[in-house]
Structures are given as C-alpha cells and as structure tokens.
Amino acid sequence: MSDFLQLIISGLSTGSIYALAAIGFTLLWQASQTINFAQGEFVMVPAFFILIGSRVLGLPFPIAIGFGLAVAVFTLGFVFKRLVIQPMLPHGHLPIVMATIALAILMRELVKEFYSAEAQTFPALFSEQTFDVFGAVISHQDIGNLAVSAVAIIALQLFLGRTRTGRSMQATAQNPGVAEILGVNVQRMVLYTFMINAALATLASVLISPIYLAKFSNGEPIGLVAFLAAIVGGFNQVRGALVGGLLIGVIDNLSAAYLSSEYRIAGPMILLIVIILLRPQGLLGTSEGRTV
Amino acid sequence: MKQLKILGLVAILAGLIIAPFTQATYGTYVLSSWLVFTVAAMGLNLTLGYAGQISLAQAAFMGIGAYSTALMTMAGLPWIASVVVGMGLCFVVGLILGYPALRVQNHFLAFVTLAFTTLAFLVMRNEEWLTGGIYGLVGVPRPSVAGLSLMDGTRYYFFTLGVFILASLSFWWLVNSPWGRAFKGLRENPIRANSLGVDTRLVTLLAFAIGAAYGGLSGALMAPLVQYIDPMSFTLIISLKILLMVVVGGSGYFFGPFLGAGLVIMLPEFLRFAEAYYLMIYAALVVFLMVVCPSGLLGLLSRGIAAIRSREPAERGDLKEGAQL
Amino acid sequence: MTETVLSIRNISKSFGGIHAVRDVSFDVYKGEVLGLIGPNGSGKSTLFNCVLGQLKPDAGGVTVTGQDVAGKRACELSKLGVGRTFQQLSVFPEMSVLDNLILAGQEHRGSMFSRLFGPSDAGLTEEADRMISFFRLGHLRDELAGSLSYGQQKLVDAAMAFMANPALVLLDEPAGGVNLTMLGHLKERLKTYNREHETTFVVIEHNMEFVMSLCTRIVVLAEGAIIAEGTPEEIRANQTVIDAYLGS
Amino acid sequence: MFKTITLATALATFGIIGAASAETLKLGNVAELSGPGATVGNAWTDAINMGVDEINAAGGVLGMQLEIDTYDTQTDAQTSRALVQKAIDDGAFLILGTVYSSSTIVNMLVTMQQGIPQIVGSESPSITQKGNPYVFRSSFGAQKSMPKIAAYLDEGLGAKSVAVSWVNNEFGKGGHDAFVAEMEARGIEVVADVSSEVGQADFASDVTQLKSANADAIFVYLHEEESARLLKELRKQNVEAPIIGETTLLNQKVIELSEGAADGIMGHVGLTVDAPNPEIQAFAKRFSDRYGYKADHNAMKGYVAIYTAATAIERAGELDRQKVADTLHNMTITVEDVPNILLNVSWDETGEVSRESFLVEVQGDETIVKDMLPAN
Q1: Of A114, A210, D17, D101, which has the fewest Cβ atoms less than 10 A away?
Q2: What pLDDT is stored for residue D21 in this prediction?
Q3: Mind telling me which InterPro entries this protein's record contains (chain B) (predicted)?
Q4: CB pairs below 8 Å between B and D: how many?
Q5: Which of A35, A269, A280 sits opposite B118 (nearest CB)?
C-alpha cells in the first residue's frame, strides 16, 4: 500500500512538471497549428541559460533565473516564431515537423559543443528534506513542484480568461479570421503564445533540472512525455494538458512497477493509441474548434 | 527535355555501375546503404508523399523485414523466401496500422505510428527467445545468386543495385498507374476523390501496406549488408531519419527519396571537415531548407524550372482567354 | 420523360427537437433539370445529404434508378451512377486538369487489379480531352488545377462530375462565387450537356436568375416541407413562395 | 542533372583516399564523440591522443611516428561499422575503439573479416565470446568482474538476497546476466530485478521496487548519470541497504553529480585513478594538467589501449597484422617494462584481459581503495 502511494505521489510530482511542458505544447498548437518536436529541448535549454548566468556571468542564482527566463523568452519565443515558424506557416504541418526535429538536434549540439557534453548539477529551489505519509516518502521538492505548477497553471487560466489580452489570444486560437475582423492583432497574439510557451518551458526546466540533472540529451524523453500528456489530456485545453501530465506521470510509474520495467513505456504508449482511436480530442478536450 | 531526362538516367545508372570500382570498401558500403535506405524512403514516399498519410513507422517495418530475413536465412532458408515472408508480414501489419488513419489525421496519425515504432522496438529488445534481445542477431549470411557467393562487398552492392532497380521500376509503374492517381487524389482531396468512386478507405490502407512492404524489402536488404541486426537500428530516430530523407529530397516527387537518402547518408561525409560541428551545420541546413523551401530540394528545382519557363516570351493566347474566364 | 431516376419517398429527418425535413416526397425523371430551392434553413441541405447517403433519414427512403441509397458510402454511390459537385472548390490542386478528369473516370473502368496492370490513363485520355474541349478548357489541359481561376476550377469540378457518365448529377450551388461571364458559360454548357446526354440534374442554388433559366422544374422547400412545385414560370408567380422568401 | 553532379562530387570525395606515408604508422580511433556516449568517447579519445604524443616524443613505434585518425560514431552502431571500414580504407594498421558495447559488437565483424587487430573499451561479456581472433579488450568484461563482486557480497557482506538495478542495453544486459549467474552459483537470491532505459530521468518507481524488496544489498549497474539519479532517489526514499556497484557506479562523475548521495557506496573497479599506484597517479596528473578535467576509467581504458597497441606492434617487430594479433594473444605487459600500461596486464586466447582490480568505498567526496583484488 505504501508502495502504491509512493508511486502515485512521485508520479504526480514529475507529472506536474510534464504538464508545464505539455501546456506550452498545446498553446502552440492552438495558436498556430505548430507541432513543436523540439519541445523537450525547449525545456532542456533554459537550464543552461541559467547556468551560464550563474556560473559564467557570476550572477546570484535568483537573478540568473531571471536572466535565463529573459533569454529563453527572446530566443525560444520571439526568434523561434519570427525566423522559423512564421515563414513555414502557409505550407502545412510537415515542414514544421521536420524543421523542429532539426532544430532539436541543433539545440542539443549547441549545448554539447559550447557548454558541456556532461551532465551538470543544478541547484534546487526547494530543500530535499523529506517526511513520511502512510509509509510513503514525500520531499519538500515534490510538494514544491506540484504547488509551483499549480500556481502557474491557475495564473495562466486567469490570464487567458480574465484579461483583454488573454481573451484576444483565445479568440485568435479559436478563429483567427474572426479575431482579425474584431480588431485583434493576430500575429502579435500568436507571438505572445510563443513567449508564454518559452516561459513555461523555463519554469519546467528550473523544476526538473535539480532532479534530472541538466544535460544536452535530456530533451528527448521530456519532449516525448509532453506529447503524450498533451494528446491524452486533449490538445485544445489547458486543463487537459494538466490532467494528461499528471496521468502520464502516474501511469508511467505504475506500469514500471506492476506491468514490467522492460515494457515500461509500453503502458503510456498503449494508452496513447487507445485515446487517439477512441477519443481523439483527448480526455478533457472538446472536438476540434478548428479543422484543417 | 525527355531525351535529356533519359540521358540523365542512363548517366546515373552508368555511374552507379562504375562507382564501386572507383571506391574503397567503405565507399561501396556507403553506396549500398544509400540504396537500402532509398528503398525504405521510397515506401514512405508512397504513404506520405503520394497518399498524404504521415507515418513514423518506417523503421519498424525495416525491422520486421530485417528480422524475418535474419531469422530465416540463419535457419538455412533462401533469402528470396525470407523477402516474401518479410514483405508479406509488413504488408499485413501495414494494413492494420492503416486503420487508425481512417479515423485520425496529421499529428494524431504521427503519434499512433510513433507509438507503434516504440512498441515494435520494445518487442525486438525484450523478446530475447525470438530476436536475440538487445544483442541482436549476429552473422546474417549474404545470399548467393546462381551459386555465386555475395560475401564480397562489391558483389553484394550489385545485388542490392539489382533489387533497387527492380523496386524503383515497380514503384515507377505503380505511381504512374491509375492507382498512383488515386493515391494523389486521396492526398489532395479525399472527400472529392470518394465522391468520384475512389474507395478512399481501401486506398488509405493500401498506401500504408505497400509503403510498409517497401520498408520490409529495405530491411531484408539491410540485414545481409550489415550482417548483424539489433533493435537499436530500428528505433524512432531511424524513422525520423527516413522521414527526413523523403521531405528534404521532395515528398511526392519520384526522385525525392533518392536525392534525400543520398544527402542524409552522404552529407556527414561532405561535412566531415567541420568535425564536431557537422551535426550542427547539418541540422541548421535542414531548418534553413524547410524555411525557404518546404517542398524539398526537388520542389525548389521544379519551382526554378517553372520560373525560367514562365519568363519565355511565348505567345499564349490562352492567357487572355483564361483571364477573362 | 417517364423513366424515374431519383425517387424520394416520405423522407423525414429531425435533429433533436427540430424537424429539418418532414415527409418530403418527389420524383425526378430522366433528362430533367430539377431545381431545389428554399430560404436558409428550409431543409435543402439535409435533404441533399439524405440523397447522398451521408445522413440516414428517420423515415422514408431514397432510390436512384431503383436502388436504395441508404447507408451507401460516397464511392459506392458514385458506382450507382450518381455524380456530384461541391459548394466549395473541390478539385485536386496539385494535379493537372487532365489528371483531374481521368481520376474522375478511372474508378469506373474495370477492377482495381485490371487498372493496376492496364494503361496508365485507364484508356480515358480521349474522353477526358473531349470533356475538356466541351468545357472549353483546352488551353489549360496540362496546367495544375490549383493554379486556375475560381471560375475555371468550378468548370473542372463540373466536368469531373460528368466523367463517369452518371445517370444523375447533383449540383450543389454551382453558381456560388462565379462571375457573370463565367456564369453564362457554365449555364450554357450544363444545358448543352443535359440536352446531348439526357443526364438528369438536381440543382441546389440561391441565385434565382440562374435556377430559373437552367431548370425545367423547381421544387420549393420551406421549414422542411414542400410548399410549391412547378415550372420556373409557375414558381415565379406563386404567392406562397414569394411569402416564404420575404418572410411572414 | 543535379543528381549526377552530387554523385560525381561523391565519387571525387571518395577518390581522395591517401595511403599512409612511410615514416608514420597510421592507427584509427573510432569512438563516441557525439550522441549519448559523448562523455565516454571523449575521455577515451583524449587519453589516446595524450598517449600518442608521449609515444611519439619517445621515438614512436618501430622507429615510426604514430598518426591517429579519429572517427565519430555518433554513438550509433551502424555508423560505427561504416567508420571502422573507412578507417581501414584510410590505411589504419590497427583500430582502437569503440567503447559502447552495442557498437563494438557490430563493427568488430568488419575487423574480423579483414584481419585487422582491434582494441576495444567495451565491457559486454559477449565480445570475447564470439571467437573473434582480432578483438582485444583494454579492461575486463563484466564476466570477469562479477565473480569478484559476488565474492564480496557473499563473504564480505554475508548477503542472502540482493536487488538489482540495471540499464537495459548491451552494456547493462551483459553485466546483469553475468551478475545473476554468479548470484545463482552462490545461492544468493535476486529478489528484485529492475531494468531501466538509457537516459531515463525518473527513478522513483525503480527505487520503490528496490526498496520494497527488502534485500540485504542493492546492486547497481547503470551508466554514470543514471547512477547519480538513482542514488539521489535511493537516499530520498531512505533506503538503508548497502549499495554495491561496478566501475561506473564508483566513477568520480557519479560522486559529483549525486551531490552527497554516493556517500557510503561500495564496489569493485577495474581501473581507477584513485588507486595508490604511482604510475596511475602520474597518469592522472598528466591528464588533468593537459585537459583540465579529472581522468576516469574510460580515459584509463583509452590510455591502456594505445600503450597496448604500441607494445604489441613493438614486440611483433614488424608491420604484420596477423603477427600483432598473435603477439597479443597470451601476452603479458608488466609495469616494469612499460610503466604507462599502469597495471600488470595479460590477455588470454580470446582477447580477454586479466589484471588486478580494486575494492573501493566512497567516503564523502573521496573514493578510498579498501583492497586490492588479485587477477583472475
């Protein structure tokens, strides 16, 4: 029983970080029909921006985080949207898929060549102290991860639902043509979405790197899980990605423990196939607002 | 124009026949692996380029073909029998994998096929009794033709070239037959195609199954080439590599995969001077290509040709009439 | 003019509580050009989709040349001799006009396998060329369909519907978005085709001018039921129709 | 047309394949310079380059200067196969590498068919069990180290049960199978057998399983970063059982990355820069002076590999590959003869290595050598 609880709690803690990556992923899809195959690398890279800030530039850690966030929002948000995605938008999905795959390789290689090929330790925001709950060990980090993710997601929901800019962004996602007529600057809203994605990725990076260590090759598994979470939860719902992330975190743990550690990833993969075939809009998603 | 094309083809063929004699063993090996990957990319070009169904499962089909060949030829059965079984198996699995495509499209389909590739990898790695597990199968024999052993690299190259030419000719036949037109119809406008009597359900499944069979053939050629197969050769990365070949070359163009596979396999050679940076340069080139020309290199070429043609000051009365309509 | 091509019998269809079509029956005879008109929301599209087998009526049935269309997929319907055009542009943009037309006919030639091993054009080039010159598209034969103007693409769309020599062609707002010169050309070609081949047409259209001058008979729907039926002249003079359109 | 040009360029490129000049002896180093194995392959390569410079400074081999060509496998087995062929085409007399077992097992077919001696850094048992007369290790295979660990578990700890965490690839599977066989032989029960993926980040579930097995000891056979992640999670979930490992677990990198979680782990290492031997200490210093980072066992493997190659060619006395391979079989190199071989070492007829090894324990950030185990 305590094992089961332990698996659930650990799964929720990492799942909440997956959710952050998955949410950015769904936001990009909604705003510009971009499937970002480099999403995992978007989570991997900010940790190195922060490390550059703290180790190379000698900034105190909290300021280094701010520095990393700014660099990430500029490069992974602004530059990525303007120079890479925008020119390809009129040409459908495939070129974007290929370009983001190549971009993922490029980012990995850049980090490896210009920072380090080796894993790096990364300071934790929360203490690694633990306490017991019914035999399961919970660390402050677990709680912190869940709390930070929850706050970020709630803030995002409020921003999208309660502010003028947020509503304009939603209008853009649902129907860019109509939004344009209503006087929304569609391109700017799409740009904001890309920047929010970069910010969420940075947050995920800060939370995940103390546990996973910062390494150039970390993007691949994280990206894969983000896709899974987004699809399972529903591509057009922020809430969906949250539920998807938590669910994948837990199912991954359970399938490793109770199915077979050799077939571990099969659990989430089979779930993915079943969801796509039976409920392609995802568990919480509604039928696609925009059909292509 | 047509003579020029035929002349070009003859020149390429002559080049391919002479090539191994100018090469050290390594060069011949690289050329052979280009041929093998082109066959796989050709198959994906049918599924994706002609029929418009994205698939990230091509490496898994190569795996099915390669394991069939390895297991059967190591048990003493002839290569040709293993090809029939391998391709047949891929065809059937391709039909099954095509079913999701009847329900979902685009990225959903990409993820279903991605999941399939991952599951196939897990089976290849974990089912040691059948596949040799992570160690794979070592010592896959190369076939003999008419009593002539193909253990020598150059001989096997010619064998591969022969199979490759047969595969290309069948592919040419297929995409230029009414079936090819039906595949394109499915890609361009499935609803319209259906209303014109094209059984889009069947055509979708066939596009997957035939593409998969080409993947199987490619695997059947690869196992004896490398003489060793292991699950790591059939992972998602390899699927993405094949996808890259198709898209970079020009998806939906007959020669797209030929060019794309050539680039993906040979470019690291050309960029060797860049040493540790070559993968970086390579990735940057792909991003750049996709940004400036999403239809791939052949798309760029045909756009160039069209631009030159339209500059010809031909007297085209039809343009006036066209403008009027 | 007695052979029944399309027979609609007591069709009813409702969505939730709304009766989109109630108890509609009429026949369409060989060689007729029947116009199906009505204000927005009158049930035209629902009826149209029932004929195409895309919606299953709650009651009643549709037969084409005596065969039930219920549950038939679009490609099977095509084999029964039903051709159609689409409201929105519906060509194969990255294929030449010629290939568009050959594709429109090839599935009606031989079996799947005989086509694979038969000639590349399924023996349809001549016929496609005839169709191309019939619609005066000769100069565009080898152009990509997607590069044509809107009106030209509408012509290709119509030409495709005829390639399989259908007994019945359903035209879904053929005039929508087409400029005046082109509209005249389209109407004239459709009339000529109808005369030469005795092909039966059912036309859904908003453009009254177009419908009145093309059709030989008109059925008017309002709120899911037939409110009038007759020649264009009779309909033009019918007070109920005028009221329905103006709204009462 | 474009294709023809591409092809012509390709042909031209391959055409320029030079032969080694008379005064130099060309060796090929095929290693993991990029991809997941980059850390490992770079340490291996750096040490080889250092060794080559030292050997050349001392007059070379048979009076010839060594020239080393390095090829990057991208940690991909098929690429490594092609590159071993390329190295041979380029005129390499002997091949060094690869380190990853999954690559070695593929590319050693090429050297076998063409009779080229190859010295590898891989530890998967299967490599020397395939009857390949041209493949030689520079550190021993898992089947050689596992008996030493088993003896320690049995006699040193008195363990009756053990839980195993291993990485499910060529490297981990080989070690796992050899370990489990030893456990069976000694009657120690394997109560939890948990595999993980290369690059796996989340070890919560693995640790929960290891913990709930309540074994007398936990044996870890993972790559460096995964080891660090596992150790952190083991500490987090308050696992008390002794943690035992083989070479990689006791790597300096693991100690550094696990930020204190490695304290108290024990294990067996074939090669360690922390060994008190003066030769090893001298090597470690030269290496860190030159490259600015601390050498690990992969660097030591590379260093031993290049000195093995040089010594074998010197002893064969002529540039005859068959003769070099024959010399290497049943050869012994002592530290008295070649100080930079670091430890006395001998090869058997399969190319397997025998050498003394160490029992170490991590205390704080230090690796302490507790015992020297004789060669087996």
Answers
A1: A114
A2: 45
A3: ABC_transp_permease, LivM-like
A4: 99
A5: A269
Mean pLDDT, chain D, whole residue set: 89
Q: Closest chain A residue to B242 measured between Cα atoms? A: A98
Residue B317: what pLDDT?
Answer: 38
Q: List the subunits that have 3+ CB pairs under 8 angstroms with A.
A: B, D
Where in the sequence is the domain holding A56, given as residue range(s)? 2-123+132-217
Q: Give the domain ranges of chain B.
A: 27-274
Digit-coded pLDDT (tens) for B7-26 = 989 999 999 998 888 888 88
Tell me the C-alpha to C-alpha distance, in Å, between residue C134 and each of A114, C160, C167, C193, C196. Answer: 67, 12, 19, 9, 11
C1 touches B at CB < 8 Å: no
- State yes or no: pLDDT of D36 exceeds 80: no
Q: Are residues D259 and D334 in the same domain?
A: no
CA angle A255, A259, A265 (to 5 degrees): 50
Whether D300 is covered by a domain: the verdict is: yes
B194 or C246: whose pLDDT is higher? B194
User: Same domain, yes or no, for D284 and D135?
Assistant: yes
Which member of B54, B111, B276 has the closest CB to residue A227?
A: B111
Determine phi and psi for D155, rounding to 5 degrees.
-90, -40
What chains are in contact with B, requiring at least 3 Cβ pairs below 8 Å? A, C, D
Instruction: State the nearest Cα–Cα gap between A254 and chain D, in angstroms.
Output: 7
Does the pLDDT at position A287 exceed 70? Answer: no
* C189 at B interface, C-beta within 8 A: no
Confidence label for D79 from pLDDT (cuts 50, 70 and 90):
confident
Chain segment B279-292, per-residue pLDDT in tens: 788 889 888 888 88
Between C100 and A264, residue with greater pLDDT: C100
Class of domain C1-81+166-248: alpha beta
Domain B27-274 classification at class level? mainly alpha
D56 and D18 belong to one structural domain: yes
CB-CB under 8 Å, D13 with B33:
no
**D351: alpha, beta or left? (left if phi > 0; alpha if psi -120 to 50):** left
Q: Where are the alpha helices (H) located in A125-185, listed in sequence order? A: 140-162, 164-174, 176-181
Residues of the domain holding D189: 142-269
Domain-ending residue, one of D269, D297, D317: D269
Number of domains making up chain D: 2
> Residue A165 domain-assigned?
yes
Q: Say whether B107 and A265 touch across the interface (CB within 8 A).
A: no
Structural domains in chain A (count): 1
Q: What is the 3-state secondary structure (H, E, C) of A65-131?
A: HHHHHHHHHHHHHHHHHHHHHHHHHHHCHHHHHHHHHHHHHHHHHHHHHHCCCCCECCCCCCCCCEE
Q: Which candidate in B17, B37, B134, B278 is best for mutational testing of the D interface (most D CBs within 10 A)?
A: B134
Smallest CA–CA separation between B207 and chain D, in Å? 27
- Residue A138 at interface with chain D, using a CB cutoff of 8 Å: no
Instruction: Please name the member of B188, B322, B324 whose beta carbon is closest to the beta carbon of C93.
Output: B188
SS3 of residue D193 by DSSP: strand
| CATH number of the domain bearing residue D230 | 3.40.50.2300
* B244 close contact with A: CB closer than 8 A: yes
Residue from B239, B248, B290, B300 whose CB has the most chain A CBs within 10 Å, to mutate = B290
Model confidence pLDDT, tens digit, residues C93-133: 999 999 999 999 999 988 888 899 989 998 999 999 999 99
Give a yes or no: residue D73 inside a domain.
yes
Chains that touch D (3 or more CB pairs under 8 A): A, B
Lowest mean pLDDT among A183-197, B142-156, C219-233, D326-340: B142-156
- Residue D348 · residue D340 · CB < 8 Å: no
Which of helix, strand or coil describes residue B289?
Answer: helix
- Considering the domain architecture, whether residues D264 and D297 belong to the same structural domain is answered as no
- Of residues D282, D301, D233, D283, the one with CA closest to residue D262: D233
Whole-number Å distance between alpha carbons of D331 and D327: 6
Does residue A263 form part of some domain?
no
Residue at which a domain ends, from D202, D235, D269 = D269
What's the gap between Cα A120 and its chain centre?
21
Confidence category of residue B276, pLDDT binned at 50, 70, 90: low
Predicted-assembly ipTM surpassing the 0.95 threshold? no
